[in-house]
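Here is one such tokenized protein:
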Amino acid sequence: MTADRTALGAFLRSRRDGLTPARAGMTAFPGPRRVPGLRKEELAMLAGLSSDHYSRLEQGRQHTITDEVLRALSRALQLDGVEQAHLRDLAAPTSRRREVHETSQRAEPGMLRLMNVLDHVPVLLLGRRSEVLARNSLLTTVLGNPMEPGSSFVRWLFVDPEARTRISNWADFAAASVGALRYEVGQRPQDRRLTAMVDELRKRDEDVARWWDDQGVTFRTSLTKNITHPVAGPLTFGIESVVGPHDPDQRLVVYTVEPHSTTAAVLPILAGWSADAPSQRG
């Protein structure tokens, strides 16, 4: 069984376990139930597949998977758009996987210009593996960390105790970050640096291990981040990601604020504190 097909089978099992017959809109097959969600035969029926065909998929013994089968499984499992894309990534032949880049990323000039225009709010430019490519000074003031280019945002999130203190809804934000890591691994399973980082974080943090085993996936999800600043007090941001036209592996993470909110009123003061610390870029 290949590693790719093992990941595919694990994802299918997790989605099947999370879908009950009632939620699937079907009558449960008779007999004792040994699984929390759908049985293999029930899901096979919903997807219009034979039980043997579906079993081969889940066991990693079906090497060729058509788009028609993937669409049928997505409908039967009620996958959302991100989960459907992840399923296609896991089922794709190696030749169709995204290229693994071992060279260092450079911040895309257009994204840097956009970051400079948005200097009134915290902004962070991330690359592959959540590597910090650039950030503005207001971001460091809000998060209380220098976020030097070349550092890892996700490592800070899980390794630095300050992250859990500074982000008051840390669990929500961190769980989404693990889902984003799983989505990226699905796109680039041969990225050894990425998989090594995930393995390290899973071993050292039980939260990462639990969320990883849940098989959840996210992709640039809009989230609310609540910050507890030691001087400015509670701050609330809407986190939005912008992907440029030249490099899909770079995303500008913008901390947006509601007009006339307490956070909007405090940000100019924080910007004054950080005025002597210029924006950093790789």
